[in-house]
Amino acid sequence: MKLFKWTAQPFLPSARKVSTHFIAEEWARAGHETHIATVGLSWLSKLKQDAVYRALAERQKNRFLEIEPRLHAGAYIPPLHAFSSRNRVLNLLNRPLFRIYGGYIPGFLRPALTSADAVFFEPGTCLSFFHSARRLNPDAVFVYIKRDWLTTIGAAPYLQELERRILPEFDLVITPSSSIAAMTSQSCRTEILPQAIDKAAFDLSAPSPYEAGTRNAVSVGNMLFDEAAVRALAAADRSVTYHVFGATCAGDLPDNIVVHGEKPFRELVPYIRHADFGIAPYRMRKEDVYLAETSLKFLQYAYCRLPVLTPDLIPDKRGNLVGYSLDGEQDWPGKVAAALAMAKSESFGADILGWDEIAAGILDRAVAVAEKTAA
To answer: pTM of the full predicted structure?
Structure first.
């Protein structure tokens, strides 16, 4: 098959990997010609994401690069792009910009898009290209891989309204979240497929990056990152060092918080494998509980047999969570002690799937929809 996927997650060796990267790699390895278009960038990106902008501009700016056999990644980088903001005035100004931005598909994307058998979208800026892509390739299966509520990721009101309008026009929605599925199934065909992990990477023998005799916790990712919770945990037990990947912390930090920044996935794996426990410090609301089913870190921690400190809103389905209150937790030392005392267990990782299984499952469902439509 020929596959085309819109994403806001750049394909760069220096960046951490998320589901988009794993799935696309598995499609290509299975023999499918796969093109990934990164959007949500422009010259403006130099102001906030200078390193990412420079890395993409060097080899992927407005062109496709074959980064693995059959896997082509390209970044659409115009002078200006539409973006989401927490500022109400900016969101009002962005409305016409989203329509203009998504209304034009550059020439380097068109051949792969028009020849694709299936076109995949993710939540966020990608959605602004829906109608333009459908006009270019009305015969392809259009699939929405929806892993987040747009409110949770801070998508602009325009995108939230657009999602509601176009949801019935998708041929298929795939989500790992039962709560998201309950909403989307009212508008179009919806399939639930869980998240997965790169089992081979975690199964490789790798030395511990931690000094012998030390106790270490690991935090991965920046979504809804709760810096205050990490600082509280660090103050509660100074004998534990907290290693933060992906997120940033402001101001001076205690000696037992180490901010590593973005790291390639393979460099990150040993920090998870050899940690004493993981943390998932979400600054969340009740409607964000779907993250229990969509967050990769929970599966990665569980596969590595780690206890996990996380808000007590998250349901403990694998038996490895230690919950703390988001409303004035009074016993941070007790929570850390509970995580350290919990025995690591193989049972935490029971039934976790690999990305090859999920990637194949997505295509199986897309093909089934295409065959049903053709009949």
So the answer is: 0.91
